[in-house]
Amino acid sequence: TPMINKLKFKTTLAELELIVQSMEGERLALEESIAAYRRGSELLKHCQQQLSDAENKIQILENGVLREFDVSAGGSR
User: Fold this and answer.
1) Which tens digits make up the pLDDT trace of 10-47?
2) 30-61 vs 9-24: helix crossing angle, rounded to 10
3) Cβ(43)–Cβ(6) below 8 Å
4) What is the DSSP string of the chain?
5) What pTM, to 2 d.p., does this model score?
6) 46 with 12: CB under 8 angstroms?
């Protein structure tokens, strides 16, 4: 598996979904379940960090004020 810090957000979410599906399907032995849980935890932390980084970039772009994005208006309110 690739190094987590090199994964894109969408790729990370896709791998997380596969892990959840395999754990829910009870197709894994105990040791495999533990390894999958650890990998899932690492992937989740990576996703959270990427979201936090994106939020910080938005705040910088908005001069430190995070505004809610209005999809229907195509911009921030």
Assistant:
1) 998 899 999 998 888 877 888 998 999 999 999 999 99
2) 150
3) no
4) ---GGG--HHHHHHHHHHHHHHHHTT-S-HHHHHHHHHHHHHHHHHHHHHHHHHHHHHHHHTTT----EETTTTEE-
5) 0.65
6) yes
Sign of the torsion formed by the C-alpha atoms of 66, 68, 72 and 73: negative
Helix (H) or strand (E) holding 77: none
Q: Compute the mean pLDDT over every residue in the chain, rounded to the nearest whole number.
A: 81
- CA distances in angstroms from 63 to 53, 57, 59, 60, listed in the order given: 15, 10, 6, 5
> Between residues 45 and 60, which one has the greater pLDDT?
45
- φ and ψ at residue 76, rounded to 5 degrees: -90, 155
What tokens appear for 12 in the block?
């990370």
